[in-house]
């Protein structure tokens, strides 16, 4: 019994969708411009905009200042029609951020954990960070349309955390299942360095760059890559793991810093920062330790550079806060190893890179729903039902 | 004074182009099918096909056998409307092949050179191989629409040979300039391993594979990669050079074979083959030498695999003729180094892979001309004028 009524309703949905696509990522448009872009008649375009305003997707904007005669009405996509949640679950901290559909941060929070924090406590910290963000933002859970989690470890394309060296009990954790208790919305899971690379390309120092390597310089380094404009995840999601090769010497390289003479007795997670501070003011033992750390970092970086020949290397991760101490030695160590030296830039997003990359991936997911789902308007109007 | 006459002529050209695109890469089509695909009227489609047959681009095919009633005429793209030339300039041989626009080899030839062959003599050998192919194929120079050269060494995106370790006087050779004395057609230059990777993806063991690493196992190994379905050349064309890293141990790895006890006195370029033969029948010294060669090959291969996480590794290059001796030891050496073992397949194109990849790249270039040039019909009708 769907017949003509069902067809008409479907046609209206498709028209609304066309109107929505025309406005997404565009400056405000007039009815005439919208009619041209969608191929709809002016009357249909008018109906579509009224429908989209009713649903909360579209808003009218005031006429352009100084316009002559009777100014044409203009419409814009409401980037606050929905929100996404980005999470960063690291060894020593958990971060959360709620952004609008343009990636603007509405609320963000972080809480400290440690390498030895048991799985359940780490998940509790995640829940606390989310609750704090929701409370600060005043965004109801139902208005969060997609959730992306960045986590340490290798994450397969189905979002399973398969291999983790930095946190003993983290492999196999069911993040989508855990978050599914709070959210009915889709939960995506990805490796943290990959999300940081994505954030640098979308929002950070690598905008307009199509081929880049992201180096996470920290106690346990990591890497990720953008190839031909796209995040390269690999056939099983395990790209960027060249640091696992013994010949690359990444696995134990933080020990150069942690065993630096003169710093014994400090907590291991603080020594690196202290060594960088000492190196900055010329302490010879600290400079030597930094040099050995950088020499090992450069071998893995050179393997990535010689393999991919990227335009740019972005140096991020916790140690990139001491980028002033690291950058020149890294350049000097890389030059003799590389066929062509790429440009090296310090991350501009710093500690926010993973949550911001997570938000970018969640927004991509919302866009895909908008652009390809059978019935995205319905799906997104009731996000709890999206699977 | 171009006015209406010029416009009409341009419209006819655009219609012909639409007809050509519809047939390129398609089975034979009837007039009705062509009209539907091009959006032209049946009468215009008829005119267009007559024009394309006059120009030699299109041929009529006999009606399908067993068709009832008056059978509809069908048309096909003439893959023999033009030809491309692929070249492979290696350390110890030069190869040439002429293929039609579907990549079918019409004529192929090879001639031996050596690592010590001076540049001019190597170029003379190239000219002899080309002349032999032209003579065998009976294809006039004017019917060769594009030329692609695969060469050892790093090749930048402008086709300049920038860095070569295997041939002393080869860096800086102007291959496009040299071939330009014989051909007015476009000459593309690329690294040989990259073309071999392309050939394996288009015509060989990697069809349908979107992410693969090609390993050239030879006296001087090389590598190339297809990422997300596309040949990844790198920002300066220098991707795949991870073997230059000392930690990867590729540079001297052939010495494991060449210094194998019991083979002294044989010419260096023949020892590897003899060692593989001896290993095949269980000679302990040869097995040991092969094991050490494979252990070093595996380090570079693991760096590529850990970086990219490809679906497939294709083992090609001169030594892949002894794939039966290499494949199992390589798998065993790689397994403990990799997070996820990709499938490993032996090249099915063997020594033809570089010339075939060169032909593929030349055909891509012809397709680009057909699909995007301002006036491709005119351009390709007088290929000498294409630049």
TrEMBL record, chains A, B:
Pfam assignment, any one: MarR_2
Stretches assigned to the HTH marR-type domain: 20-63
InterPro entries (alphabetical): ATPase_NBD, HTH_MarR-typ, ROK, WH-like_DNA-bd_sf, WH_DNA-bd_sf
MF GO annotations: DNA-binding transcription factor activity
Family label: Belongs to the ROK (NagC/XylR) family.
Protein name per UniProt: ROK protein
Source organism of this protein record: Streptosporangium roseum (strain ATCC 12428 / DSM 43021 / JCM 3005 / KCTC 9067 / NCIMB 10171 / NRRL 2505 / NI 9100)
């Amino acid at each position: 019994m769907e017949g003509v009524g069902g067809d008409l309703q479907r046609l209206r949905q498709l028209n609304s969708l066309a109107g929505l696509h025309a406005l997404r990522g565009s400056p405000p448009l007039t009815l005439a411009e919208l009619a041209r872009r969608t191929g709809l008649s002016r009357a249909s375009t008018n109906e579509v905009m009224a429908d989209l305003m009713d649903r909360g997707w579209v808003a009218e904007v005031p006429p352009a200042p100084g316009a002559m005669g009777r100014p044409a009405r203009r419409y814009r996509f409401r980037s606050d029609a929905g929100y996404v949640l980005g999470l960063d679950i690291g060894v020593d901290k958990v971060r959360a951020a709620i952004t609008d559909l343009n990636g603007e941060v509405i609320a963000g929070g972080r809480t400290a954990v440690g390498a030895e924090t048991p799985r359940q406590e780490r998940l509790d910290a995640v829940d606390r960070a989310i609750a704090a963000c929701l409370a600060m933002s005043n965004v109801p859970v139902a208005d969060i349309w997609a959730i992306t989690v960045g986590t340490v470890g290798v994450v397969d394309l189905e979002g399973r955390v398969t291999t983790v060296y930095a946190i003993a009990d983290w492999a196999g954790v069911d993040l989508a299942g855990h978050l599914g208790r709070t959210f009915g919305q889709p939960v995506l899971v990805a490796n943290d360095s990959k999300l940081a690379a994505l954030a640098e390309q979308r929002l950070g120092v690598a905008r307009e760059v199509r081929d880049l390597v992201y180096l996470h310089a920290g106690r346990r380094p990591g890497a990720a890559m953008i190839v031909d404009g796209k995040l390269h995840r690999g056939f099983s999601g395990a790209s960027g793991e060249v640091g696992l090769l013994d010949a690359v010497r990444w696995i134990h390289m933080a020990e150069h810093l942690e065993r630096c003479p003169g710093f014994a007795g400090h907590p291991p997670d603080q020594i690196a920062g202290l060594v960088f501070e000492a190196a900055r003011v010329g302490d010879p033992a600290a400079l030597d330790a930094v040099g050995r750390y950088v020499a090992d970092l450069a071998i893995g970086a050179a393997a990535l550079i010689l393999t991919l020949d990227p335009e740019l290397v972005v140096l991020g991760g916790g140690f990139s806060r001491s980028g002033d101490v690291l950058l020149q030695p890294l350049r000097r160590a890389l030059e003799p190893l590389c066929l062509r030296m790429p440009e090296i830039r310090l991350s501009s997003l710093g500690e926010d890179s993973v949550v911001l990359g997570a938000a970018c991936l969640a927004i991509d997911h919302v866009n895909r729903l908008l652009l390809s789902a059978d019935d995205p308007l319905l799906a997104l109007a009731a996000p709890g039902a999206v699977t």
